[in-house]
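re: ur question from earlier - yeah i can do the single chain one, its not a big deal. heres the input i used so u can compare w yours
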Amino acid sequence: MGRYEAGRLLAFAFCSADALIEVNQGGMIIYANGATRPLLGQVPDKLLGQFLNKLCIKDDKVLLSTLLDRITDGERFNDVPINIARPNQPDVVVSLNGYNVPGLSNNHYITAGMKRSAR
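and the output i got, formated as tokens:
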């Protein structure tokens, strides 16, 4: 894939998301890009090696862990509100979408955005 095609895919991803996150099967963040500081309270590099479910409030840990455990090849979850406990900042509700790409890896690809209210 050329540079233009890779850039195009990244642009499409950011059309509906503020941050992109990849987690391994154990839920550890192995890639992060985008506006992670306002969403998750940390810049992308600081998120690497952390477990995604450790970033949310206690009441949402089981929900997020269950979503990650149950998603398999070709499956997704959409617009799941998760309360994030940001360090030294107020908690925030983030909308997560996840997908597991068939045949690519066993990792989970997640987009995150601020939870938006209906008009």
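The beta strands are 19-23, 29-34, 76-84, 92-99, 108-114. not sure if urs matches, ping me
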